[in-house]
Amino acid sequence: MSARDRILARLASRLSTGADRDAAVSARLAGERPETPRPMQSRTTPEERVEAFIARAVKADATTSRIGAMADLPAALAEELRRRNLGPSVRAGSDPALAALDWGGVEVSRGVGRIEEPATLSVAPYGLAETGSLAFCSGPDNPVTLTFLGETHFAVVRAEDIHAGFEELFAAHRGSGRDPRTLNFVTGPSRSADIGQTLQLGAHGPVALHIFVVGE
């Protein structure tokens, strides 16, 4: 027996065979994996996750407010527009969660983002407590251009959709059935320190990001 044959025979003797091996392969393909270590943040309560998300978003120069339900969004948005000396208009996609609302005195135009827009509005399907980031799925419901064009970006995320870390977020995404071309993570407004090492907001996108956290 050659050295190669002895090595392969030794490896074969260590591997599970027969039904045990077939069961292990089937379990792996079905996604039934052993529980992996999780950071401490993964063991936080839902409210702790929301608080961590808000604290880290604010640290990244975003602003936030909490509202009880989606029905409260039009009034909350109108107040934020007034506070920022912006007109009562916003650009949004065709997200059903927004289309179902009574916008009152706020004029909502629909379509892709345009660079001349003073305010845009998107719904984020996920928030990330680990970094204070929002994750946006591309598509006509919330076009990517709304996220990156316009001076002020308003975003909506449900408290129940704020996940502790990347592991939980991607597990939720895989189980959601969504299949966007891109999943864009946004942490605070656009910024750059390329010129003179001085941080400038709005360098390559919105100068301000305001997040409405919906629900408890």
Which features does this protein show?
single chain, 216 residues, alpha/beta, six-stranded parallel β-sheet, 12 strands, 23% strand
Task: Describe the 3D structure.
- The protein is an alpha/beta fold.
- Helix content is 32%, strand content 23%.
- It contains seven helices and twelve strands.
- The strands form three sheets. The protein has a six-stranded parallel sheet, with helices on both faces. Strands 8-5-6-9 form a four-stranded mixed sheet. Strands 10-11 form a two-stranded antiparallel sheet.
- β10 (191-192) and β11 (200-201) form a beta hairpin.
Short account of what is shown:
With 216 residues, the protein is an alpha/beta fold. The protein is built from seven helices and twelve strands. The protein starts with a helix and ends with a strand.
